Protein backbone atom coordinates (compact mmCIF):
# COMPACT_ATOMS: atom_id res chain seq x y z
CA UNK A 1 0.00 0.00 0.00
CA UNK A 2 1.67 3.17 -1.25
CA UNK A 3 -0.17 5.91 0.70
CA UNK A 4 2.61 8.46 0.29
CA UNK A 5 2.31 8.32 -3.49
CA UNK A 6 -1.16 9.89 -3.26
CA UNK A 7 -0.54 12.22 -0.33
CA UNK A 8 -1.05 15.41 -2.33
CA UNK A 9 -4.60 14.30 -3.15
CA UNK A 10 -5.38 13.92 0.55
CA UNK A 11 -3.69 17.28 1.24
CA UNK A 12 -6.03 18.98 -1.24
CA UNK A 13 -9.05 17.14 0.19
CA UNK A 14 -8.12 18.17 3.74
CA UNK A 15 -7.44 21.75 2.66
CA UNK A 16 -10.92 21.98 1.09
CA UNK A 17 -12.53 20.71 4.31
CA UNK A 18 -10.48 23.08 6.49
CA UNK A 19 -11.19 26.14 4.30
CA UNK A 20 -14.90 25.34 4.23
CA UNK A 21 -14.88 24.99 8.02
CA UNK A 22 -12.99 28.26 8.51
CA UNK A 23 -15.43 30.05 6.17
CA UNK A 24 -18.47 28.95 8.17
CA UNK A 25 -16.77 29.70 11.49
CA UNK A 26 -15.79 33.22 10.42
CA UNK A 27 -18.95 34.25 8.55
CA UNK A 28 -21.67 32.14 10.19
CA UNK A 29 -20.24 31.44 13.64
CA UNK A 30 -21.56 28.99 16.22
CA UNK A 31 -24.85 28.77 18.06
CA UNK A 32 -23.74 28.75 21.69
CA UNK A 33 -26.08 27.46 24.38
CA UNK A 34 -27.06 29.47 27.45
CA UNK A 35 -24.25 27.68 29.33
CA UNK A 36 -21.83 29.96 27.44
CA UNK A 37 -23.88 33.06 26.58
CA UNK A 38 -25.91 33.35 29.77
CA UNK A 39 -29.70 33.43 29.85
CA UNK A 40 -32.59 31.09 30.63
CA UNK A 41 -33.17 27.66 29.13
CA UNK A 42 -36.59 26.01 29.44
CA UNK A 43 -37.23 22.42 28.35
CA UNK A 44 -40.74 20.98 28.47
CA UNK A 45 -43.09 18.57 26.70
CA UNK A 46 -46.50 19.40 25.27
CA UNK A 47 -49.01 17.90 22.85
CA UNK A 48 -49.65 21.32 21.27
CA UNK A 49 -48.20 22.12 17.86
CA UNK A 50 -45.27 24.53 17.63
CA UNK A 51 -47.26 27.45 16.21
CA UNK A 52 -49.68 27.42 19.16
CA UNK A 53 -46.81 27.04 21.66
CA UNK A 54 -45.06 30.00 20.01
CA UNK A 55 -48.11 32.21 20.43
CA UNK A 56 -48.35 31.39 24.12
CA UNK A 57 -44.60 31.87 24.71
CA UNK A 58 -44.62 35.34 23.12
CA UNK A 59 -47.28 36.46 25.61
CA UNK A 60 -45.64 34.72 28.60
CA UNK A 61 -41.97 35.62 28.07
CA UNK A 62 -42.46 39.04 26.48
CA UNK A 63 -38.87 38.96 25.14
CA UNK A 64 -36.85 37.45 22.29
CA UNK A 65 -36.22 33.70 22.40
CA UNK A 66 -35.23 30.74 20.25
CA UNK A 67 -37.32 27.56 20.17
CA UNK A 68 -36.60 24.09 18.82
CA UNK A 69 -38.72 20.96 18.86
CA UNK A 70 -37.91 17.25 18.92
CA UNK A 71 -41.00 15.03 18.92
CA UNK A 72 -43.12 16.43 21.79
CA UNK A 73 -40.18 18.06 23.57
CA UNK A 74 -39.62 21.82 23.27
CA UNK A 75 -36.37 23.64 24.08
CA UNK A 76 -36.59 27.40 24.60
CA UNK A 77 -33.52 29.63 24.92
CA UNK A 78 -33.99 33.15 26.26
CA UNK A 79 -31.07 35.60 26.23
CA UNK A 80 -32.33 37.23 29.45
CA UNK A 81 -31.44 35.80 32.87
CA UNK A 82 -34.69 35.93 34.86
CA UNK A 83 -34.75 36.45 38.63
CA UNK A 84 -36.40 33.83 40.94
CA UNK A 85 -39.74 35.70 41.22
CA UNK A 86 -40.01 35.96 37.42
CA UNK A 87 -39.16 32.27 37.07
CA UNK A 88 -42.00 31.36 39.45
CA UNK A 89 -44.38 33.55 37.45
CA UNK A 90 -43.28 31.99 34.14
CA UNK A 91 -43.70 28.44 35.49
CA UNK A 92 -47.24 29.22 36.58
CA UNK A 93 -48.23 30.74 33.24
CA UNK A 94 -46.66 27.91 31.23
CA UNK A 95 -48.53 25.35 33.31
CA UNK A 96 -51.88 27.09 32.86
CA UNK A 97 -51.60 28.27 29.24
CA UNK A 98 -49.92 25.35 27.45
CA UNK A 99 -51.83 22.12 26.89
CA UNK A 100 -50.41 18.94 28.51
CA UNK A 101 -47.45 20.97 29.79
CA UNK A 102 -44.76 19.03 31.63
CA UNK A 103 -41.56 20.77 32.79
CA UNK A 104 -38.36 18.78 32.17
CA UNK A 105 -35.68 21.36 32.93
CA UNK A 106 -35.25 25.05 33.66
CA UNK A 107 -31.87 26.66 34.23
CA UNK A 108 -30.67 30.23 34.56
CA UNK A 109 -27.07 31.20 33.78
CA UNK A 110 -25.72 34.68 34.47
CA UNK A 111 -23.74 36.23 31.54
CA UNK A 112 -20.59 36.55 33.69
CA UNK A 113 -20.72 32.81 34.45
CA UNK A 114 -21.10 31.99 30.75
CA UNK A 115 -18.10 34.14 29.78
CA UNK A 116 -16.01 32.59 32.54
CA UNK A 117 -16.97 29.14 31.26
CA UNK A 118 -15.78 30.01 27.74
CA UNK A 119 -12.46 31.24 29.17
CA UNK A 120 -11.97 28.09 31.27
CA UNK A 121 -12.89 25.86 28.31
CA UNK A 122 -10.28 27.52 26.08
CA UNK A 123 -7.67 27.22 28.84
CA UNK A 124 -8.48 23.50 29.28
CA UNK A 125 -8.17 22.81 25.54
CA UNK A 126 -4.93 24.82 25.31
CA UNK A 127 -3.33 23.02 28.26
CA UNK A 128 -4.36 19.63 26.81
CA UNK A 129 -2.73 20.41 23.46
CA UNK A 130 0.52 21.66 25.05
CA UNK A 131 0.80 18.63 27.36
CA UNK A 132 0.13 16.22 24.47
CA UNK A 133 2.72 18.01 22.30
CA UNK A 134 5.39 17.69 25.01
CA UNK A 135 4.46 14.05 25.73
CA UNK A 136 4.83 12.94 22.09
CA UNK A 137 8.11 14.86 21.75
CA UNK A 138 9.41 13.12 24.87
CA UNK A 139 8.08 9.66 23.95
CA UNK A 140 9.53 9.57 20.43
CA UNK A 141 12.49 11.93 20.96
CA UNK A 142 11.47 13.57 17.70
CA UNK A 143 10.14 17.11 17.37
CA UNK A 144 8.77 16.47 13.86
CA UNK A 145 6.57 13.57 14.98
CA UNK A 146 5.10 15.78 17.70
CA UNK A 147 4.55 18.61 15.22
CA UNK A 148 2.86 16.26 12.74
CA UNK A 149 0.53 14.90 15.43
CA UNK A 150 -0.41 18.45 16.47
CA UNK A 151 -1.24 19.39 12.87
CA UNK A 152 -3.46 16.32 12.60
CA UNK A 153 -5.24 17.20 15.86
CA UNK A 154 -5.70 20.80 14.71
CA UNK A 155 -6.99 19.50 11.37
CA UNK A 156 -9.60 17.32 13.10
CA UNK A 157 -10.66 20.04 15.54
CA UNK A 158 -11.13 22.74 12.88
CA UNK A 159 -13.16 20.44 10.63
CA UNK A 160 -15.30 19.14 13.50
CA UNK A 161 -16.06 22.60 14.90
CA UNK A 162 -16.56 23.96 11.37
CA UNK A 163 -19.01 21.16 10.57
CA UNK A 164 -20.99 22.10 13.67
CA UNK A 165 -21.00 25.69 12.45
CA UNK A 166 -22.80 24.33 9.37
CA UNK A 167 -25.19 22.37 11.61
CA UNK A 168 -25.75 25.50 13.73
CA UNK A 169 -26.60 27.56 10.66
CA UNK A 170 -28.91 25.08 8.92
CA UNK A 171 -30.16 22.82 11.73
CA UNK A 172 -29.86 25.11 14.80
CA UNK A 173 -27.44 22.78 16.61
CA UNK A 174 -26.19 24.19 19.93
CA UNK A 175 -22.65 24.27 21.23
CA UNK A 176 -22.72 23.26 24.89
CA UNK A 177 -20.44 21.58 27.44
CA UNK A 178 -21.24 18.15 25.98
CA UNK A 179 -19.82 19.31 22.66
CA UNK A 180 -16.63 20.49 24.40
CA UNK A 181 -16.38 17.03 25.97
CA UNK A 182 -16.78 15.49 22.52
CA UNK A 183 -13.99 17.68 21.08
CA UNK A 184 -11.56 16.68 23.85
CA UNK A 185 -12.50 13.01 23.32
CA UNK A 186 -11.91 13.36 19.59
CA UNK A 187 -8.45 14.81 20.25
CA UNK A 188 -7.51 11.76 22.29
CA UNK A 189 -8.93 9.35 19.71
CA UNK A 190 -7.07 11.04 16.85
CA UNK A 191 -3.88 10.96 18.89
CA UNK A 192 -4.23 7.25 19.68
CA UNK A 193 -4.14 6.15 16.03
CA UNK A 194 -1.30 8.56 15.28
CA UNK A 195 0.84 7.21 18.12
CA UNK A 196 0.22 3.64 16.92
CA UNK A 197 1.60 4.55 13.48
CA UNK A 198 4.60 6.46 14.85
CA UNK A 199 5.37 3.60 17.22
CA UNK A 200 5.31 1.17 14.30
CA UNK A 201 7.67 3.46 12.33
CA UNK A 202 10.10 3.46 15.26
CA UNK A 203 9.81 -0.31 15.63
CA UNK A 204 10.50 -0.95 11.93
CA UNK A 205 13.42 1.49 12.01
CA UNK A 206 15.01 -0.31 14.99
CA UNK A 207 14.61 -3.68 13.27
CA UNK A 208 15.72 -2.75 9.77
CA UNK A 209 18.06 0.20 10.51
CA UNK A 210 17.08 1.62 7.13
CA UNK A 211 16.77 5.39 6.74
CA UNK A 212 14.34 5.03 3.84
CA UNK A 213 11.39 6.70 5.53
CA UNK A 214 9.29 6.41 2.37
CA UNK A 215 9.41 2.64 2.87
CA UNK A 216 9.10 2.80 6.67
CA UNK A 217 6.05 5.05 6.70
CA UNK A 218 4.22 3.21 3.93
CA UNK A 219 4.83 -0.15 5.60
CA UNK A 220 3.80 1.21 9.01
CA UNK A 221 0.52 2.53 7.61
CA UNK A 222 -0.13 -0.77 5.83
CA UNK A 223 0.48 -2.82 8.97
CA UNK A 224 -1.73 -0.66 11.20
CA UNK A 225 -4.52 0.23 8.76
CA UNK A 226 -6.69 -2.87 9.27
CA UNK A 227 -6.43 -2.61 13.06
CA UNK A 228 -7.30 1.08 12.96
CA UNK A 229 -10.33 0.56 10.71
CA UNK A 230 -11.62 -2.35 12.81
CA UNK A 231 -11.30 -0.31 16.02
CA UNK A 232 -13.07 2.63 14.41
CA UNK A 233 -15.87 0.52 12.95
CA UNK A 234 -16.81 -0.86 16.36
CA UNK A 235 -17.07 2.70 17.71
CA UNK A 236 -18.94 3.94 14.62
CA UNK A 237 -21.54 1.17 14.83
CA UNK A 238 -22.21 1.85 18.53
CA UNK A 239 -22.37 5.63 18.07
CA UNK A 240 -24.61 5.34 14.99
CA UNK A 241 -27.02 3.10 16.89
CA UNK A 242 -26.99 5.50 19.83
CA UNK A 243 -27.70 8.49 17.56
CA UNK A 244 -30.91 6.81 16.40
CA UNK A 245 -32.38 6.72 19.92
CA UNK A 246 -31.28 9.99 21.58
CA UNK A 247 -32.51 13.54 21.11
CA UNK A 248 -31.48 17.12 21.77
CA UNK A 249 -27.98 17.82 23.08
CA UNK A 250 -27.24 14.10 23.47
CA UNK A 251 -27.86 13.61 19.74
CA UNK A 252 -25.40 16.37 18.82
CA UNK A 253 -22.90 15.00 21.34
CA UNK A 254 -23.15 11.54 19.75
CA UNK A 255 -22.88 13.00 16.25
CA UNK A 256 -19.77 14.97 17.25
CA UNK A 257 -18.15 11.77 18.55
CA UNK A 258 -19.15 9.90 15.39
CA UNK A 259 -17.63 12.54 13.12
CA UNK A 260 -14.55 12.71 15.36
CA UNK A 261 -13.93 8.97 15.10
CA UNK A 262 -14.14 9.16 11.30
CA UNK A 263 -11.84 12.20 11.19
CA UNK A 264 -9.32 10.60 13.54
CA UNK A 265 -9.22 7.40 11.48
CA UNK A 266 -8.61 9.44 8.34
CA UNK A 267 -6.12 12.00 9.67
CA UNK A 268 -3.68 9.62 11.37
CA UNK A 269 -2.44 7.88 8.18
CA UNK A 270 -3.39 10.52 5.61
CA UNK A 271 -2.37 13.71 7.45
CA UNK A 272 -0.06 12.98 10.41
CA UNK A 273 2.05 10.22 8.81
CA UNK A 274 2.30 11.83 5.36
CA UNK A 275 3.07 15.23 6.84
CA UNK A 276 5.79 13.64 8.98
CA UNK A 277 7.43 12.33 5.80
CA UNK A 278 7.33 15.75 4.09
CA UNK A 279 8.62 17.54 7.18
CA UNK A 280 11.58 15.18 7.32
CA UNK A 281 12.24 15.90 3.64
CA UNK A 282 12.03 19.64 4.27
CA UNK A 283 14.44 19.33 7.20
CA UNK A 284 17.01 17.56 4.99
CA UNK A 285 16.74 20.26 2.33
CA UNK A 286 17.25 23.03 4.89
CA UNK A 287 20.40 21.32 6.22
CA UNK A 288 22.05 21.27 2.81
Describe it:
- The protein is an alpha+beta fold.
- The chain folds into two domains: 4-33 and 113-287, Up-down Bundle (Multidrug efflux transporter AcrB transmembrane fold); 39-109, Alpha-Beta Plaits.
- 74% of the residues lie in helices and 9% in strands.
- A four-stranded antiparallel sheet has the order 2-3-1-4.
- The longest helix has 40 residues, at 248-287.
- The model has no long low-confidence stretch (mean pLDDT 86).
Largest sheet: 4 strands, antiparallel
Can you count the helices? 9
Question: Helix- and strand-based class?
Answer: alpha+beta
Helix content: over 70%
pLDDT averaged over residues: 86
DSSP strand tally: 4
Please identify the oligomeric state: single chain
* CATH homologous superfamily caption of the largest domain: Multidrug efflux transporter AcrB transmembrane domain
Subunit structure: Forms a complex with SecD. Part of the essential Sec protein translocation apparatus which comprises SecA, SecYEG and auxiliary proteins SecDF. Other proteins may also be involved.
Subcellular location: Cell membrane
Protein name: Protein-export membrane protein SecF
GO biological process, one term: intracellular protein transmembrane transport
Amino acid sequence: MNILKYRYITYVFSLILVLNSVYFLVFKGLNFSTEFTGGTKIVFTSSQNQDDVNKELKNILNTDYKISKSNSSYSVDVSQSFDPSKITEIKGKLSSEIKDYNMENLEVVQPSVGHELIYKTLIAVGISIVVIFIFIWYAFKDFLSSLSAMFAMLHDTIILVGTFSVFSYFLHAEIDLLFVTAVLTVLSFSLYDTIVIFDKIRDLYNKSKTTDYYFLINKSISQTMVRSINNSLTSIIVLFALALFVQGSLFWFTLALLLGVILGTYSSPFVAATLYFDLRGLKKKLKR
